[in-house]
Write a structure and sequence with these properties.
There is one protein chain. The protein is α/β, with parallel strands linked by helices. It has 2 domains: 124 residues, HAD superfamily/HAD-like (Rossmann fold, 3-Layer(aba) Sandwich); 68 residues, no CATH class. It contains 11 helices and 7 strands. The radius of gyration is 17 Å and the shape is globular.
């Protein structure tokens, strides 16, 4: 029986529109590709999420990957929080589940720097029953340690949890730990799958 609903944050409860930011900053397609490959699409982004090394070291790594785009990377870095926008449905979805008696948790890969810049967009954090962010525990999905941290911190039984995430690899990891899972595409699709699990 499902008692707990665990949400990913990015692309589920908030948008992470770095492509839109590049457009707003006026980057050409070529420059956008270079900046993306040096930052959000690079292996360093996982370390940024993990927050085990300093932001200065992360930025240095980004710049080394595309030294000819230093100015553009710096603009992105200095405005990075503007990529995050809360989806209109986030509060209502969380509150609706809680009113039905479910406990709601968050489990997200989220860098310390972006968290500090987007607290206003993450206001629902104050309303959920618990949350674990990667920057706090220095572990990232799909590593089992971050899932286990959430289970341990809030005394959750994986078989009583459903995990909702837009990343297939994270879904597979949660399945291996015994959770029911929903690979998120849209809110309506996820709600239908929740109903099929008896969460309605």
């Amino acid at each position: 029986m499902i008692k707990n609903v665990i949400f990913d944050v990015g692309k589920v409860l908030v948008d992470f529109d770095w492509q839109g930011m590049f457009d707003q900053l006026g980057y050409s397609p070529e420059v956008s590709d270079k900046v993306a490959n040096a930052t959000v699409l690079s292996e360093l982004w996982g370390e940024f999420d993990r927050s085990r090394i300093t932001d200065e070291e992360i930025l240095e790594g980004f710049l080394k990957k595309a030294p000819d785009c230093e100015a553009e990377i710096m603009k992105f870095w200095n405005n990075i929080g503007n990529c995050i926008r809360r989806y209109d449905y986030a509060f209502d979805w969380i509150r609706g589940l809680q009113k039905k008696g479910y406990r709601v948790y968050l489990l997200s890969n989220y860098p310390r720097r972006i968290y500090s810049q987007t607290i206003h967009e993450l206001a629902f954090v104050e309303e959920v029953d618990g949350a674990v962010f990667s920057y706090e525990v220095h572990s990232v999905k799909p590593e089992p340690e971050i899932f286990e941290e959430l289970m341990k911190k809030y005394c959750l039984n994986p078989t009583e949890c459903v995990f909702i995430d837009d990343n297939r690899g994270n879904i597979i990891a949660a399945n291996k730990l015994g959770m029911a899972t929903i690979h998120f595409h849209t809110k309506s699709q996820a709600e239908e799958e929740l109903k099929s699990l008896g969460v309605e």
